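Hi L.,

You mentioned the student needs an example of a multi-chain input paired with its predicted structure. This one should do, with 1114 residues in total across all chains.
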Amino acid sequence: MKDLILNIVPDAVIEEKEKLTVTVEPKQLHPLVKALYSNKELPFDYLISLIGMDWGDKLGVIYLLSSSKDMSREIAIITATEDRENPLLYSITDMYEAAHLNEREVYALLGIRFINNPDMRKFLLAEDWNGYPLRKDYNDDPKLNPITIANKEIVDIAPFIKEDEKGNLVEGTTDIFEEDDYVINIGPQHPSTHGVMHFRTALNGEVIKKIDVHSGYIHRGIEKMAESMTYPQILHLTDRLDYLSASNNRHALCMCVEKAAGIEVPERAQYIRVIMDELNRISSHLLAWAAHCNDLGGTTAFIYGVREREHVLDIFDKTCGGRLIVNYNVIGGVMNDIYPDFQKDVKAFIPYMREKLVEYDNFFTHNPITLNRMINVGNLSYEDAVSYAVTGPAGRGSGWSCDVRIHKPYSLYDKVKFKEIIRTEGDSYARYLNRLDEIEQALQIIEQLVDNIPEGEFKAKTKPIIRLPEGQFYQSVEAGKGEFAVFIESKGDKSPYRIKFRSPSFAAVSAMPIISEGELLTDFIGIGGSMDYVIPDIDR
Amino acid sequence: MNPFIKYISGIFTALKALIGGLRVTWRELWRKKVTMQYPENRETLVISDRWRSELHMPHDENNEHACTACGICMNNCPNGTIKVTSNMEETEDGKKKRVLDKYVWDYGTCTFCNLCVITCPSDAIQFNNDFEGAMYDRSKLIRQLNKPGSKLREKEKVEKPAAPAKEAAKPTEAPAKKEEKKEIAPEAKKADEKSSDKENK
Amino acid sequence: MNYNQPLELTGLVSNLHEFFRDNLSPFWATLVEGALVLLALLTLYAVIALALIYIERKITAFFQSRLGPNRLGKYGVIQSIADMIKILIKEIIHIKEVDKFLFYAAPFFVIVSSMLTFGAIPFGQGLQAVDFNIGIVYVLATSSIGIIGVLLAGWSSNNKYSMLGAMRSGAQFISYELSAGFALMTVVVLSGTMQLSEIVESQRYAWNIFNGHILALIAFIIYLISGHAETNRGPFDLPEAEGELTAGYHTEYSGLQFGFFYLAEYLNMFIIASIATTVFLGGWMPIQIKGWDAFNQIMWYIPSYVWFFGKAGFLVFLSLWVRWTFPRMRIDLLLNLEWKYLLPINLINIIVMVVMVLMGWTLSDWFPALFGN
Ligand code: SF4
Ligand code: SF4
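Structure written out for the whole complex:
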């Protein structure tokens, strides 16, 4: 691997840190990534995350790449520019579709523009936002960005900056839509966007011609907030990303901090954490199933799904004191020990849920209307799934083996037996079935663990103030919607220098335009349901 | 397969699946409903012990609490929800001592992360189960948790909080410091809770 | 054979009629009678709609493991009255840049169409306002006016969602109108008349659905499906598909105008059920078995309008059951279902029916002693 890199970029700085880290000049980034991307045996074709950084003297990006063939192989590529006035880096959107929205996000939050990205509008922030929030010298005076109640027109014109053959930079604009397109707004207030999402949709009759994704209506700047909080404090924000996978997200951050600070987590806590993760996955998939059915017009199914989910929430409620925002994992273990009846309740839930899964099948899965509305609808090919970095049940519905629990096992996942559910059809129906099957797998994992929870401490003793050593730390988990990753850059303080969450929903939404193109408007909603994105996860 | 047979068999498989669906709803029609009738079932409603609703500071029958006004909870709160103000008082033996003046908690900005409770070295605060927090006036969200005239519970010997998180998980268990108090503590505390709740409302 | 019918309203109706004839000039008598009938129909219309709204909410809730409205009155029975009052006193929001005339006219088209149809339904013995000799054609014709209202609403709202909803509605309605018409024609062939009262009369001993056995059953199912589709109720509710079109053609309507659409929707559901009852299930006719006079007498003790509402109620229940079990169709599936399945089956059905009637293969031909009129 090193040889390959040095071959392309002889003066690259290669460090063996937690991940193989390569630092290159901006000019050399694109050739290097291209070589890794088109590497025959192990193509690095999966962009896990694209992390914009402000190092004070330099503005840059960390590219976290992995391979769809072997997810355990990861490489971090760092590039930076010293120009703070007009920082320019090269885009990698020609290889990774996932980079489109990510680069736009970096532009909005750090002001770095990417050469050759065809659409350099701000993502997550309004076009007229003053300042770049994630820069360290950001001025957060509310006067600069007053809250207005005036109506703002949406301008469908995208600026870009590109390099022509001679190597000169040319700036220009493109129109997103054609002049006589019939554009309707799906969102931001709309019954079926699962939150405050906004799709500008050009229609041709009822057939979708083009979709433009707008997001950020509930952007809270969690990454920015976290920079001024201590690690235990940041924990309470992760529950509020993808609130349906609260435990899983929090598990990721806890593990990342524990790994960096060298905290050993007691066995008992591990068991409890994994059980909670799987319960959370069940609740997430149940709601996804319910909402998907509701999107297809099956209101009754929605109520059934939520009814079953209530049983999981009751268990959460008794264990953690919260139902949705469970607030359970803490650094070094879990907040409370399980309550005395925990095992009994969980064991009662397993057969109940199995019975209901059969009922769901009879009720919805085989219904001819359902089949017609899902089979061969919203096709996401394997290549697209990888390129858009769509993981989770959706990615596995396209035949991509991308379960973090298998490829990068954490906690107890290398000890339990379960099957990775993979379907190759890539349509809505594959994603739908994947979720139902994963509920069954989660039940099996819980079954293996719930009787064997060892005695002992449920939380390791930690120092009152947790400082992480200097360095960069990564941790991924399999959340309900896909790979959720945490990146922390620490300067040895009690709060992170930069923290970045990779959210699976972000990728799912970025793939929406391609999979719904050419489908009917009706199906667009169903496809959205099958991708199962959660807006707060996108609008971190 | 002959397209005509396929056409006909398609109709029948579809009908079969449709009837399967209808059977599920039909059975549901006669099952017990899951709706909880909330205000009516107040009496029987079980809220789990750990449920985090309102922060409160247990006082015992002598109107004493355990807060030493150290401010750790205030510093740990991610949202600046807690304001602890204290006075310096002189004790009989001439030492200066910090005494809690006001302990103010803002229901409106609390995110129920429980950090204040698990970090408090004296177990002076807990979450209770009183989930009916809706009110008409926003100013009522800001509450003073220490009661007027209350004071710090005298300690016979400094006791380390044993497994603070575990304790915090059981809000009905008062942090009893004295041997003889241990027995009466839970009841007294409950009465306490009620009266303080009334005040809050 | 004359049966004792203690609770029938026929006597009352004819007494009133005679009373007016005796005391007023023919012109005034007709006028007063007309006004009374109108009043009775309007009241019935409102009462049925409110009752249906309540029933639907309650039954839906039971299907969904919920309790449904239960706060107002015992079991929430006055919930829909309260809702009606709310809708009546709600502000009608005036939308800028709508086509005013069409926008305000649209709800009336919808409600008038359903009222016209409503008038032709025989609710019981002697309880029918208009009884044309081409009753079925009349019913088909008037119920089709409603679509104009829907199209106008969508067009004039100046809203893209409404527009799409209305266009879908148009395509859907016109397609399913065919099937509904053909299904009814099948029965017309069977009973040999288009007059609703005579159709009911002809089913004294054998309901059409039995008389025409398999073929009539097929026609019945097709009629129910297409009736469902015509009234835009799930799984065919795509014109107002909440998921993508927020509320479809009536997105921009508020207050009473929305109330009109809402009422008409429920009433149309009832109208479809009543036509199906009249045409296939013997209408208000009680269950009669030839020769069993004692049994028949007992059946006649139950008044005819109870029979009618009972049968229609059963069909309404079916419609709710289907609606709350199945997901929504997609426009192409919907048209597929109509043009590829229902219509061809229907056409064959009607031809076979003609043959059957000509050859005397109906039940009443086979067993005249049991089922013959
Ligand atoms: S629970 Fe969390 S947010 Fe609420 S007061 Fe305590 S520390 Fe602050
Ligand atoms: S409640 Fe606890 S942490 Fe907070 S000031 Fe009092 S003693 Fe200190």
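You could point out the following to them. The two ends of chain A are 34 Å apart (CA to CA). The longest strand of chain A covers residues 46-54.

Best wishes,
N.
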